[in-house]
Structures are given as C-alpha cells and as structure tokens.
Design brief:
The chain has one domain. Helix content is 12%, strand content 44%. The chain has one helix and six strands.
Length: 88
C-alpha cells in the first residue's frame, strides 16, 4: 500500500515537513505527523479564500499551500471514476 505524502509548512518556524495523508477530500485533508506511537493527527481545512489549507497540531499552525481547486484536480487525477458513478 502506497501512502500519499504531502509537504506542509509550520508557520512559527517556517520549516517544511513531509506528512502522511489519511484522507483527502476537497473540504478536508486528514494528515498524520510523525510515525509510530509518537504521531499526531491533524485536520486541515480550506481558508476563507480557498487558496490554502490550515490546521493546528500541538499548538502549532500548519499550512498546506495548495488551493481547493488544485486538491480537487489531484483527487480526480488519482481516481477519475470516483465522480462518474451513476445512481441506480
């Protein structure tokens, strides 16, 4: 199983870290920072202008600098049949 990894920026220090993605939707991205028993889950939500995703983990603000449209395009690229299903 391939775990998707994204790069996020910690605003206080400016460091860029690579995190694992648990669930990715246009309205919310769930990530895990760290590995093993010392991991921290975080939920990133779009900003008001939808140009980035932000969240907090352990009191630190985390920013994923991709717009909502870019994330939606990434999701469609990975699984194009996801939105083409027909109701029965």
């Amino acid at each position: 199983m391939n775990t998707e990894k994204i790069k996020v920026r910690v605003t206080e220090s400016g460091n860029v870290i690579e995190v694992a993605v648990l669930n990715k939707r246009a309205d919310r991205i769930e990530i895990v920072i760290g590995e093993g028993v010392h991991n921290v889950r975080c939920e990133l939500v779009p900003t008001r202008n939808s140009l980035a995703y932000v969240g907090k983990a352990m009191g630190r603000e985390i920013v994923y600098e991709r717009s909502r449209e870019q994330v939606q395009a990434d999701i469609k690229r990975v699984d194009p049949n996801l939105y083409n299903s027909k109701r029965r």
